[in-house]
């Protein structure tokens, strides 16, 4: 399941708010929290091993996101 995300332009680079930790990260990049962003918010995790809900929970607990 995918939803579109709001794109923010920073110095001509397309960025999004990481759906897990809310950091601003380039559209197609692995965030500092380890969540892989694909330009869409993959609620089922997309290329990530965890779902978005699992990743958010892990992040809140200070655990590693996979
Ligand atoms: Zn993040």
Q: What can you tell me about this protein's structure?
A:
- With 66 residues, this protein is an alpha+beta fold.
- The protein has one domain.
- It is 14% helix and 26% strand.
- It is built from one helix and five strands.
- The strands form two sheets. A three-stranded antiparallel β-sheet has the order 2-3-4, with no helix packed on it. It has a two-stranded antiparallel ribbon with strand order 1-5.
- β3 and β4 form a beta hairpin.
- The protein is globular, with a radius of gyration of 11 Å.
- The two termini are 18 Å apart.
- The site of zinc ion has 7 residues, from loops.
- Zinc ion (ZN) binds next to loops.
In short:
This is Cysteine-rich CPCC domain-containing protein. The protein has 66 residues and is α+β, with helices and mostly antiparallel strands.
């Amino acid at each position: 399941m995918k939803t579109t995300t709001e794109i923010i332009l920073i110095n001509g680079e397309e960025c999004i708010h990481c759906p897990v930790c809310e950091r601003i990260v380039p559209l197609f990049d692995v965030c500092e929290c380890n969540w892989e962003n694909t330009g869409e918010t993959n609620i089922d995790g997309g290329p990530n091993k965890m779902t978005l809900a699992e990743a958010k929970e892990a992040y809140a607990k200070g655990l590693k996101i996979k």
